[in-house]
Amino acid sequence: MVDVTTFLDITVSGIGLGALYALIAMGFALIYKVTGVLNFAQGQIAMIGAYGVVFLGTGAVLSSPLPAFAALAATIALGIVLGIALERIVFRQFIGEPVLSVIIVTLALGGIFSGFIAFLFGRNFRAYPPELTFGSRIDLVAGATIQTAFAIAVLLALVVVAALMLFFRYTVTGSILRAAATDEQAAMVLGVSIERTIALAWTISIAITAIGGILLAMSSDGAGFSIEATGIIIFAAVVFGGLDSIPGAFIGAIVVGLLQEYGSFYFEGGTAIVDVGPGFGEILPLLFLLVVIVVKPYGLFGTERIERL
Amino acid sequence: MPCGEYFTSYESRMGLIPWRTQRIALVFGLPIPFLVPFLVGGGTLTLFTQMYIFAIAVLGLNVILGYAGEIVLAQGAFMALGAYTTSQLLGTGVGLLPAILFGGVVAALVAVGFGLPSFRVKGFYIAISTLALQFITEWFLNNGQFEAVHGGARQTLPSTPSVVGPVAAIGTDLDIYYLALVFMLAFAMLSLNLSRTGIGRMFRAVHENDLSAAVLGVNVFRNKLLAFAIGGFMIGVSGGLFAFNIGFIDPQFFTLTLTLEHYVMLLFGGLGRVWGALLGVGVVTIVRDTLQNALQVAAEITGTNATALVPVFFGVIIIVVLVVEPKGVLAALGKIKEYLRKWPFAY
Lengths: 309, 347
What we know:
The structure holds two protein chains of two kinds. By secondary structure, chain A is mainly alpha-helical. Chain A has helices at residues 4-35, 42-57, 68-90, 99-121, 148-170, 172-182, 184-189, 194-219, 230-241, 246-266, 280-295; strands at 126-127, 137-139, 145-147, 222-223. Chain B is mostly helical. Chain B contains 16 helices and four strands. Chain B has helices at residues 10-13, 20-29, 31-39, 43-67, 75-92, 96-115, 124-142, 147-150, 173-196, 198-208, 210-215, 220-246, 256-269, 274-302, 310-324, 329-342, and strands spanning 155-156, 162-164, 167-169, 248-249.
């Protein structure tokens, strides 16, 4: 069953899937680095992005939907507004509260979001407007092929990731964000407004998570509730990368994407070497996560925390 | 008669029911749950049974989260383990009580297994690994490949099993009500006493500051595992009772929504307080039931999917409680009492 072309095929789609996860994982790592909040609602926020396009761009709920690309832009804008709103209304209340409160709040937000989406759309798959779906496949080297929608989504994801990296590296705002993340007090002494930085971090985080959701949905031609599970899968990515490292989150996401594709090809269904049942592709990253937590809890690039009394 | 009540010894301060008012309330209040079946019937009785069963699970969560401070997000998974073990054992004919207790043991073992990483990591790592457990369990139960182990995703339990071995068949609503009540009272007593003993104080020390606790000679790792074992056992037992009460199990009953629901109950009543947990379960169960009925009606009238809004309601309650009074309703009542006691003076 193991032949080179299929293996290459799966590797390519694994890296692609990883690139899509990378956006959501980086959204998580960014917000953890700057504010210390562990966002358990990433999956649901990605789903808001995915279903936002369905909401604005198709006739599922609105009687006169926007054109597809306007809907796309409007959804990203919605992500930005949501980021600002969440920071102002919810997370500002919880600065300095124990970890438990913050985790529970994000879980609760996740429940709220997925409840609303289930209310509006049901738990069904919703197709994207035809302008955003592509049927054909693209040929790659050595006989490997990849779906066009998937390829476009992955390319866009890589563009966003590269833009983010450049933003952090070469702009003043990016430097301010990095400074605030590294040492909040020193940044404050140097005249950085922490309040504004935190708001900015939330905005970027939620926006790229929403974009990640849109692209994930695009790669499968429509939004489904399976995107919710991304929220837990990216934990494997960020913990492996070392929680507070943004490049680490990217590398972790690629590894997790590969694991998921290998898992779902080689361990489930008719193509399997060892069939352990449907859905194992999404379970393999979680098993990997457990191993990482036990063996190397601070991940590849994470800072080890030293505690003193 | 002295004006007011004073504690003259540490024993009386640490008593199970320290205040006279509480003792009077207990004498009048304790018979009420035993008399309830004579006053209400049918659906309301089942609601009460459900309340007691959830109370056991929330008390278990209270031991792990409220006492030992470990964030466990696998409430649904532990209950599912208890439920499926109970269902499988009932088939072999060992009787209901051994089946339920063994279900608790299985849940406790898994809880301890997932507590093992706490040797090296703490806090949110445990939250993440138990969340992973939740998803793995759901996948495992839905997976036909492991049917030999869990016996199928959807199962119907025998409606009138015997209690121990082949003797004493039970199965009426009334029987289940009393069974759940007895279990609930026993575990409430256990939790109350746990917080009064050295073990409970060690749990709290670990919760407040594990590093200081370790310096003071508390074995942090062992105490965390002990909390996982006790809490996991209670949650597993609750799962077994839940399965028996409904008579049918489906992985859909044991999702993250259930975990969220139990967190609402515990946080609403007050973390680390047994009475708070019980109060929270009571209030939230009744409100949830009312809301679900109302939404069902709304869904039928408007033709929309209104019942999907239940998690929204839970989410909003949690956030409001955490913003307004993170210590829960009991602490808020205490504050009001303190204010009224001093009124009209500021202090």
